[in-house]
Amino acid sequence: SVRAHSSLPATTNLMGFFPTLDYWRLCEQLDFVSNDAYPLLHEQADMGREVDQFAMVHDLMRCMGGGRPFIQMEASPGPTNWMARPKLKRPGMHRLEMLLAIAHGADGTMYFQWRKSRGCHEKFHGAVVDHVGTEHTRMFREIATYGAELDKLEPVLGTGTAARVALVADWEARWALERSCGPGHKEQDHIKDYLGTCRDWHAAFSHLGVAVDICERRSDFGGYDILVLPQLFLIDDDTAQRLRAFVAGGGTLVATQLTGIVDATNRCHLGGWPGPDLRDLFGVWAEEIDVLYPEDLQSIALVPDNDLGLAGTFTVTDYADRIHTQGAEVLASYTHQFYAQQPALTRNRHGEGSAWYLAARTEPAFLAALANALVGQTGISRATTAPLPEGVHAARRCDTQHEYLFLLNFARHARTVTLDRAGRDLLSGKQTGTQLRLDGYGALVIERPLG
Amino acid sequence: SVRAHSSLPATTNLMGFFPTLDYWRLCEQLDFVSNDAYPLLHEQADMGREVDQFAMVHDLMRCMGGGRPFIQMEASPGPTNWMARPKLKRPGMHRLEMLLAIAHGADGTMYFQWRKSRGCHEKFHGAVVDHVGTEHTRMFREIATYGAELDKLEPVLGTGTAARVALVADWEARWALERSCGPGHKEQDHIKDYLGTCRDWHAAFSHLGVAVDICERRSDFGGYDILVLPQLFLIDDDTAQRLRAFVAGGGTLVATQLTGIVDATNRCHLGGWPGPDLRDLFGVWAEEIDVLYPEDLQSIALVPDNDLGLAGTFTVTDYADRIHTQGAEVLASYTHQFYAQQPALTRNRHGEGSAWYLAARTEPAFLAALANALVGQTGISRATTAPLPEGVHAARRCDTQHEYLFLLNFARHARTVTLDRAGRDLLSGKQTGTQLRLDGYGALVIERPLG
Amino acid sequence: SVRAHSSLPATTNLMGFFPTLDYWRLCEQLDFVSNDAYPLLHEQADMGREVDQFAMVHDLMRCMGGGRPFIQMEASPGPTNWMARPKLKRPGMHRLEMLLAIAHGADGTMYFQWRKSRGCHEKFHGAVVDHVGTEHTRMFREIATYGAELDKLEPVLGTGTAARVALVADWEARWALERSCGPGHKEQDHIKDYLGTCRDWHAAFSHLGVAVDICERRSDFGGYDILVLPQLFLIDDDTAQRLRAFVAGGGTLVATQLTGIVDATNRCHLGGWPGPDLRDLFGVWAEEIDVLYPEDLQSIALVPDNDLGLAGTFTVTDYADRIHTQGAEVLASYTHQFYAQQPALTRNRHGEGSAWYLAARTEPAFLAALANALVGQTGISRATTAPLPEGVHAARRCDTQHEYLFLLNFARHARTVTLDRAGRDLLSGKQTGTQLRLDGYGALVIERPLG
User: Is B181 within 8 Å of C91 when comparing Cβ atoms?
Assistant: First the structure.
């Protein structure tokens, strides 16, 4: 062990949801967590999804470090040379990218690389100092300006994140799903998309300004009000027992298609899905899994006048479990295919809590609607009660006295954000009102006493 | 040999037109033929083509067994797990799939697998018994219902198929074409498509309710009225002699583009195509082979007032041989490219019969029209003289006294079929009229005395 | 060395811009240059680009042989069998293809292959004698007719090409660009496209009927009026010195995006691009390279009333250098992205000449406009002063007394070409007027006294 040779803190530069190593196990050996992040933030059509993805990755880093701040170890202030088309970052985008990490729990941001190498593989990788060798480059000046701002964010140092929602994104569950031959082909059109499914659920809450912790299946679910299991394909007996206890104790549990299919050795649970023996918890039996072609029509229709106020019809793609209720209420049903009218969204009361089963992959709009209803029901606080404008990302850090609200405008144009109560913008040092203007690619960090 | 150790009948599970093994040679060693078949029958746009493909495969199995019944050894009643999107089969579709095999000569249908394995590669492959372990699944119930119906089909057991049309689909010809560098690239957009060409010709007759045998080039062509050589790229001297004798004896021979290009060692025939020395049989010389781009315009126009009643213009794709008549009549000519007005379809009288040359790959509608004309001229009987409705597949088996007409509706909606004469539906046990209604995905097996 | 064993002239069949061998070094060992060329001339949408490409390749062959005639060693008069869809060549197209080589400096054209092999890989590759073995094929007759015409072109034998425009297409520069990780991914959508960039510049002059020599960076630039450096990614000190001398002596130098980025060891030049230390020559500093997504909008707008008469706005794709003037005039500026209004085309007076920097990859129409302006300014002569009709390729060879103007109509329909002065068509032997009709796929070779 390196510890025999040094008493310096140990870390290593992690790389997000690295596919082939269970980072939870690695993090048990580290003194603090650090990460490399190279998001694609170039005004492309799906840039919003990239922001969602990296918000989730930063949350993962914070949670793998036990909630303590992490370090953004590697970032590129300029083009990332191995990308298909390494674009320049627009002025202001690099700063937003760094503030996103800090908003989700980073206490420091660093670069790969200080100075561009003259030769070899990474000679065109963004750096603080370019080949020209001077400080008179756009990139150097942007970094210098951002660096000066960091002083103003000192109050944020060491603060945490108070999440009451958690999402399970488990390495072994992902491996089990991806390595299984079916349902759906891993290589062909990425239908399984475990991380994408997690990201869409994370975004459903994140877009509400609600903090989310990322758990693995071994995590302690005790402190949460809402626990989401996106495609938690692998569930073992111990996890099943803790999920049961979570609901019995008053928690709201949300499972989706492909939940509880296999055990920790990737063998299918016998006796009916979701397993192991979780049919009574959810009050459903999932008989078989339909896989849809892109041209197939399917959707779910909400039962009228349900107590969550959910209404409408939402598109289903890729996966649709055919389920039978065994005690659960039906909140939505399928509209097409031979299983039209059969249940698609169910809720089962169990102890003090409830267990939801969403049998199909729906369009993100439905996840947003459901997250909104559950958050409303649970009384979880949001960064802003008024809806966030499109493109504005909101995240909070807090200590025992203050909260620090990061408002990051990833839109090219100005946006107006409405707050419940005023505060002080750390970046400008000015008191704010409750109607805040954010420039295109602008940012605010509002300090307020804890509400 | 395994025969030294057992007197049990020997078979092995074949896999259709397996690319790398000449099954005719293998079948010489078997006591009976058995096959695996996993058609894609999921209401996708090209599902009809898949039915055509497997009808041809079943015919191959029957013919490789000398016309005797074969066994459908492997089938999946549910999703086929290795497919890109393993869909559930709609109710009724599994039964249709099994009856298609029986209609074309199977005397038994079996499953891979009885019970889903818990783990490993095939844990999501369809089975009779699912992981839940009970008989209360949709799939189990469909299989049980179909199994009960099999008793009613006992009269069909052991019966044969009386085909007067045959099609040559030869393993070595396929290998010679595919392994040659040109004309057209094997890997790129599958232009050669040997089996697809065979399937389209098979379908042209099959859609008329006309039985087709599948031959190899070594087969005895003696008993047939019509013999089709779709892209029979490889012709050796012995085959040439038997083709000549077939026509001389009164047969109707139909060859297409890419016929008689190489010998059994994949060396080109010298002295002009079609070879070897078959120019006088067809009355044409094929000088060169044009390969069309997808955007190129080409078609064939029928000569007005020809004695077959064929009329109109039909699209040509991919291949167009430039041919010169040397004694043959011209029935159709090209309409575009620098060889416009040059012959595209010819007929040559030879002995008691005639030899046709269709120089280009046409749209299936022309193959249908030509098959219809040739069948009409030859007086070959059809399952129904009235045209079959779209989606309905018809095939007959017979013994010395009865014929058994399978009517399988692969359409989602009901269809009406008109018969020449009434019979008894074995599945329902009822006498029928001559106007029969077939439910969506419905089936009838009509027993009638031989006409 | 083979020279120890024979006094016969040594050559080898080159293959255009062969990717992995620097042909300039190989040609130093040859007594004369010969080449294989298999253009795709099948009326496909981008056939014009293929003509442009092979015109450039033939110019390369001529220049690598020191301006002396070369041999077209391999050509296929029929289908090229390894192509995805090996089409027949339309009547007349083979002759045009051969005359294109002669127009650009070939003194002989030969075939691969004389006779089609019976078997093996190339049995379907075009040849003079087909498998049928006779002279009665379309292909044989076309070759025989073309062969007879060659006698009439005897005056052209040994003549040269008087080019005042040169373009640097350097093997090591290409390797340096392609092997670098960035800017842009080599394998993904071929964004770097070194040869395509060279071809587009070559075509800009070639479409004006202006002869172009192909140089490498080591070449002597002394005799030229205009020198173009398309993406000359690699520039070493010696080349820089000669470029400086070229401009100082009165030359017009045109550089583009990605110029002078690395040295001969593929290490980036420090101190600012274009390097090495060429900022003063061009009067610009290229700070950073933007890479555009296909959906990004960008263009350059010409400064009004510039002295070249250039006007309008032209689309930019893929690459846009962000440059700063340090002495140069701005002729055009960007219109979009955060560097809108910043310079995109500059000119710097240096000594007797001028150095241009075009910072972005533009649509070919702009290269055509700029080439036209520069040719006009420089007083370089064109094959015809009237614009050439679409599809007509013009190229000249000359000796001390005559010039031989090749007019090749790659269009399917007839075209009319207007000459400054009449001459004699060597192919027909007839005197011409100044208004010449070219049949579809027709050709003329006009002999005139040197102007």
Answer: no
